[in-house]
Specification:
nucleus; F-box-like_dom_sf; mainly alpha; single chain; 6 helices; 3 strands
Amino acid sequence: MVHMENLPVEICLKIFCFLDQQNLATAQQGCEQLDYCPEILWKWNVLGSDNNLWSNLFRERWGEDLAMFYAPDDSKSWKDVYEVQDRGDRVGLGLKIIREGGDYYLVHQGEIQSYLGSRRQRKGASSCTLDTQREFSGEGSQEEGSCRGILDKILFFIGDLEVASTDAKRGKVL
């Protein structure tokens, strides 16, 4: 039996060309879930990030004209450009708080501007909090700490509300 990890890179890339954005991202992350050896994880991550694959996906979805307009500069890859364009299509171009998984982000024109935090509880934390850079230094009063908890809940609520609103709009369209 031939396993994909034994195939040459060129053949693997040919196979990856048949994947859509979601399956390509899943293949890229799937190895982490399956606890494969580091060499295979590295190979799949490199293959899943191939600039030509993401360029072709972008061109297929948004066309040649937009691909020419949004062609990445030296600091970005086609995968980055694809993700920004996709996020812009999904959530709009205005300033939004979005939830992806359990994580919350501030997004403007499809670009993530700031990581706000997560509902996932960190080790040693008594509750879920927002970004550690925004947490109080501990020098403040107990009242400031309780205000931070309220702000966290408000931002999580706004993020959840954005998701629910988007889901409701999609339901009407379908």
